[in-house]
């Protein structure tokens, strides 16, 4: 919020200064007081007008986000292979007084600005109230003077003449427009004027009212109160009043074209009469005579235009509409706001880390120690579960191997007894099927044992444990008072380095996983296809084996020795094929389990 206010004020002051340079050139080298008055009025308007449209200037700048890193070498972190709990000793509790926060110079500057503006506003208001009370109690002018003011007002195009009062003392003639417009003229000065001189002086004050200079006084006072510390506003105020007096001179010369010399003598008499007494800022009067030589030469030698032309007014309105709404800023890239927000967040995190390191909160350390102990216990339980599952897997693998050996023994025995009876063949077949069913059940139990422990949970637990280790290492024990800043910086650097290494490792593993996933999927698909083919071939060989045994039984009953011998050779060949297929199936299943 403070940065936004300061940027808006800086942009307004910059644009107002540029307009002031143009107005100074017009006032210095031109005889057009209306144009100069308009430009100086724009200077004050720009100071109090909030910018609406931002106008980027220059090349875009990139806001860099810098993170403080201590230049301390970080030792490599070696994690122990086992998951035994480590006992951490909590540091002794001690109270640490919080470091006093430095006072922001911008807040102090804004506070000083506000106090000065408030004091100046009170001073201006008190003086205006006192002068208003003085005019309220002042006697009205004689009827002949009021009639003369009414005639001059009609000549200048005013709807109603203002009130005219006569004051005692050495005060300049002035227009007071707080409440009912009033012209105040010193009684002693009226006595020194001739009738024509008094007319031109009154016409000058009526010109202030006709031009609306009393409303300009409100803007002028508001600008001075708001920017009392800015030299530009005081310069613009003096130049604005000088141009205002010259514009009123042009109105007087226009209203009284034959009284130029009379008007010049009246101004000189007024200047000699003034004693330097101060009047409220809201008054408009001939006290602000400015460079008298320039004014007299304009009155006697030329007739300056009393107002802007139609083209000049249109150009001034367009100029004001353009300059009063823009706020020139340094061009920034589209991500500057996001970078600034991230920089503030990083600074906030670093400050919080430094405060945590300096405070040495025992409760935070105890909480981390308890969390680490809990995670170590979970890791030990998972380790025991892994060990138990591994033992179960090894037992099931031994059982599968035993059943495979029994199957091979039965097949060998069957091959070596070609003259076995049908009862022996049926008994061998039943034993063969029983052992095969037990083997398949053992294989399924083996697969279930492999998947009984969730690997994702183990990885998450290990990752959480390593994170707690890093956090606990970052806090550590309480350092000695003399080396606390160095150890704080070293701990912060270690944490940031570890986080960077973990991020790089995570990215490397993600890239490797992204490369391995398609290959693994392709291999699994190929293995599944091969297994399906082998299972189909195994089923076909078993069917052929049953048919061959049936033909062997028929041949033995019919007494055909050649057919029986041929069937025995076929059975032996089929058993070898079946053993080779089952061995290949076992290899593929084992390879798939290892891949998982």
Written description of the protein model:
72% of the residues lie in helices and 5% in strands. The chain has 596 residues and is mainly alpha-helical. Helix 6 packs across helix 9, helix 13 packs antiparallel against helix 15 and helix 13 runs antiparallel to helix 17.
**Helix percent band:** over 70%
Structural class: mainly alpha
Note the main sheet: 4 strands, mixed
Beta-strand percentage range: 5-15%
Number of DSSP strand runs: 6
Radius of gyration: 52 Å
Poorly predicted regions: 59-96, 475-482
CA-based shape: rod-shaped
Query: Which sequence of strands runs across the widest sheet?
Result: 2-4-3-5
Terminus-to-terminus distance: 58 Å
Number of helices: 17
Tell me the series of helices and strands, N- to C-terminal.
HHEHHEEEHHHHHEHHEHHHHHH
Task: List descriptors.
four-stranded mixed beta sheet, 17 helices, two-stranded parallel sheet, 596 residues, mainly alpha, single chain, 5% strand
Write the layout of secondary structure elements.
Elements: H1 2-29, H2 33-48, E1 53-61, H3 105-137, H4 143-156, E2 163-167, E3 174-176, E4 182-186, H5 187-192, H6 195-211, H7 213-226, H8 231-255, H9 260-273, E5 284-285, H10 292-301, H11 310-323, E6 326-332, H12 336-359, H13 362-416, H14 422-450, H15 455-475, H16 484-558, H17 561-595
Parallel strand pairs: 1-6, 2-4
Antiparallel strand pairs: 3-4, 3-5
């Amino acid at each position: 919020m403070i940065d936004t206010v300061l940027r808006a004020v800086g942009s307004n002051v910059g644009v107002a200064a540029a307009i002031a340079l143009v107005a100074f050139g017009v006032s210095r080298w031109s005889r057009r007081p209306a144009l100069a008055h308009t430009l100086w009025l724009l200077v004050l308007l720009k100071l109090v007008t909030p910018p609406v449209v931002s106008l980027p200037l220059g090349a875009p700048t990139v806001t860099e986000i810098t993170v403080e890193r201590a230049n301390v070498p970080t030792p490599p972190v070696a994690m122990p292979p086992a998951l035994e709990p480590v006992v951490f000793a909590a540091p002794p509790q001690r109270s640490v007084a919080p470091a006093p926060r430095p006072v922001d110079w911008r807040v102090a500057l804004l506070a000083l600005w506000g106090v000065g503006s408030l004091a100046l506003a009170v001073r201006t208001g008190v003086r205006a109230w006192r002068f208003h009370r003085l005019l309220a109690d002042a006697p009205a002018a004689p009827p002949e003077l009021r009639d003369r003011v009414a005639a001059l007002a009609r000549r200048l195009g005013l709807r109603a003449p203002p009130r005219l009062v006569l004051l005692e003392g050495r005060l300049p003639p002035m227009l007071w427009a707080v409440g009912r417009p009033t012209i105040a003229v010193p009684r002693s000065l009226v006595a020194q004027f001739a009738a024509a001189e008094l007319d031109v002086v009154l016409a000058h004050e009526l010109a202030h009212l006709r031009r609306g200079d009393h409303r300009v006084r409100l803007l002028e006072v508001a600008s001075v109160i708001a920017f009392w510390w800015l030299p530009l506003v005081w310069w613009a105020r003096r130049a604005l009043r000088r141009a205002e007096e010259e514009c009123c001179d042009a109105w007087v010369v226009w209203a009284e074209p034959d009284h130029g010399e009379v008007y010049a003598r009246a101004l000189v008499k007024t200047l000699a009469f003034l004693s330097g007494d101060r009047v409220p800022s809201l008054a408009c009067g001939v006290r602000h005579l400015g460079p008298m030589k320039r004014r007299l030469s304009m009155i006697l030698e030329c007739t300056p235009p009393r107002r802007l032309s139609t083209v000049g007014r249109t150009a001034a309105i367009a100029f004001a509409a353009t300059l009063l709404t823009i706020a020139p800023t340094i061009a920034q890239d589209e991500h500057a706001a996001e970078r600034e927000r991230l920089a503030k967040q990083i600074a906030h995190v670093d400050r919080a880390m430094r405060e945590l390191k300096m405070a040495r909160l025992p409760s935070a350390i105890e909480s981390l120690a308890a969390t680490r102990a809990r995670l170590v216990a979970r890791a030990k339980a998972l380790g025991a579960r892994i060990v138990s599952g591994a033992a179960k897997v090894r037992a099931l693998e031994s059982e599968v191997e035993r059943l495979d050996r029994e199957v091979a023994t039965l097949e060998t025995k069957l091959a070596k007894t070609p003259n076995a009876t049908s009862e022996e063949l049926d008994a061998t077949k039943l034993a063969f099927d029983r052992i095969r069913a037990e083997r398949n059940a053992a294989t399924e139990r083996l697969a279930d044992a492999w998947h009984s422990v969730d690997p994702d949970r183990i990885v998450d637990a290990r990752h959480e444990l390593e994170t707690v280790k890093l956090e606990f290492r970052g806090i550590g024990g309480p350092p000695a008072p003399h080396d606390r800043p160095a150890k704080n910086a070293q701990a912060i650097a270690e944490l940031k380095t570890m986080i960077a290494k973990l991020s790089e490792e995570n990215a490397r593993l993600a890239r490797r996983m992204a490369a391995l996933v398609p290959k693994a999927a392709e291999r699994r698909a190929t293995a599944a296809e091969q297994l399906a083919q082998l299972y189909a071939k195994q089923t076909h060989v078993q069917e052929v084996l049953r048919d061959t045994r049936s033909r062997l039984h028929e041949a033995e009953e019919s007494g055909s020795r050649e057919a029986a011998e041929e069937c025995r050779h076929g059975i032996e060949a089929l058993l070898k094929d079946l053993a080779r297929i089952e061995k290949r199936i076992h290899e593929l299943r084992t390879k798939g389990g290892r891949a998982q």
